[in-house]
Amino acid sequence: MANVQEEWLEKAISDGHIDYVEYNNFANPINIGVGGFGKVFKYEWKDCELTVALKCLKVDTNINEKIIKGFIDEVFICL
């Protein structure tokens, strides 16, 4: 992951804006689409017995604050 993306993601997690869950807590991936920020998969969350959507973010060295804000807006639309 590009440094800017890593730093932003780590800060968002530490500030409590994004919950971090270990990847191995999910099973049975099904590709459901591609968005502007990466691929979207349907997974079963093993601990909670829930079906969830996970987005695998693209590595982008040209990421900027506007792009990050767009991603945050997209996340909040889903909540």
TrEMBL record:
<dbReference type="InterPro" id="IPR011009">
    <property type="entry name" value="Kinase-like_dom_sf"/>
</dbReference>
<keyword id="KW-0067">ATP-binding</keyword>
<dbReference type="GO" id="GO:0005524">
    <property type="term" value="F:ATP binding"/>
</dbReference>
<keyword id="KW-0547">Nucleotide-binding</keyword>
<feature type="binding site">
    <location>
        <position position="55"/>
    </location>
    <ligand>
        <name>ATP</name>
    </ligand>
</feature>
<dbReference type="InterPro" id="IPR017441">
    <property type="entry name" value="Protein_kinase_ATP_BS"/>
</dbReference>
<protein>
    <recommendedName>
        <fullName>Protein kinase domain-containing protein</fullName>
    </recommendedName>
</protein>
